[in-house]
Model the fold of this input.
Amino acid sequence: MSQEVLRGVYAQLSRAVERRDWAQALRLVDLLRQQLQDPAQLQKLESYRRQLESYRQVQGDPPPPQWPLLHKPFIGDFPVTNLFDHDLPLGKEDGNGRFVSGQGQVWTPSPQHPCGKSDGHAGYDWAMPVGTPILAAAPGRVTVARPEPEFFCPSLSRPVRGLRVRILHEGESPGGIRLETLYAHLSQIRVHEGQRVAAGEVIGLSGESGCASGPHLHFEVRRFDQTNSGQPAPVDPYGWFGAGLDPWSIHPLGAESLFLWQVGQAPSLGACWQAQQLPGLPGHRPAALERFKRRGG
Ligand SMILES: [Zn+2]
Done:
């Protein structure tokens, strides 16, 4: 584990303690325990662990934080063509040729891969016909409803300006988590900046504007609170189902991902959820799969 990742683990640990999530704090301490070699540091960690255990016994597990829960951003089902890269979902800054899905599978992204074609992808892509109505995933305020700044798209070898909408969603209670959802490659925008929208309201039509190789919706979720850097960070709205810790949750720029869909509202991941259909990858964890199914995914 590199120094950088170690710093991410410490940041995540302090966040877990801050929100009194003792179970998560203990998991992180156990991860640190495997990494440290210095006996004095290990001894300190042991006594810290005992302290956390006693807090957990007295206080129990905390109520889950208030998150805005998401509504499906379109009607019907469309094939997923790209997942969230838990390795490093930072687009151009990534390029390390490694993709980690929310189920913990690792592969090399390629145009042929059914589910993870794009290294550093920060959201989900669903292929859909141009003109499909795109819906607000939660109540909120439109913060961006305009073409993005022009930039050079390598796959199209020309400058592009896609149409996109961003919506800010506040948690329902004080101390709730703020999220932003982003809808990209639209063909039409039907809202204006500053407008309040309800969940399920039409905000635009899907398209293939910007750096897109075909008609699809790029959907992204960013969380604003309790991130490792204190800055907004993209998260996976399907959460993390892999064995061990989510690499993005312990990255210095990362944040923990939780399953954020309302019951019955998670768009189907089709074959991209069926781990056993992906070539050469370890299987998923059945318990996590059951939990996912119960929540309506
Ligand atoms: Zn995308």
